Fold this protein.
Amino acid sequence: MLSVGMLLKKAMKGEVDFMSAATAVGQELITGGIEKLSASSVLFEQEKQLIENLKKVFLMVAGAGVQKFGPKLDAEQQTLMAISDILIETYMAESALLRVEKNCARFGVDSQSDQIAMVQLYLFEAIEKVNARAKEAIVSFAEGAQLTGMISGLKQYTRYAEYPNVAELRKTIAAKIIEENKYPF
């Protein structure tokens, strides 16, 4: 919460250009210019697009919160917590993806299949958490057309082109742990 609070305070003082990025996301929602994800055979392409979309969700919710509450956003603890959770999940998902991508380049994709399964599962769960927390924040301060537009945008930003088979991912990860009889990651 502290990080988000400091970021938003700096944005309100003009020290960080946060609102232009948030406004761009808002314009994307208004014009319907949200890029739809497409299924791809390129490793991690969909995951990278989803992480970019999670960043847009953060900008959308935080920007709307700043517009609604202004400097009094600090007093809106529930909204700040939701925005903080969105930021944390986005950061963790991107960090995990970048680490696995780096390992794939260094050691080969075949040797990283278990780690790929873990990052895909984590991203799936992160999207579910972001979706829930963003909805909580949005319905707490938006109403009317803004509420409808933001919820619609949230659905589009958190939609997969091709959903992962979560049960298979969990089985793959569990099989690795059982095989090594310890936590191998």
Observations:
- Residues 77-107 form the longest helix (31 residues).
- The helical segments are 2-13, 19-31, 45-69, 77-107, 113-141, 144-157, 166-180.
- The radius of gyration is 18 Å.
- DSSP finds seven helices and no strands in the chain.
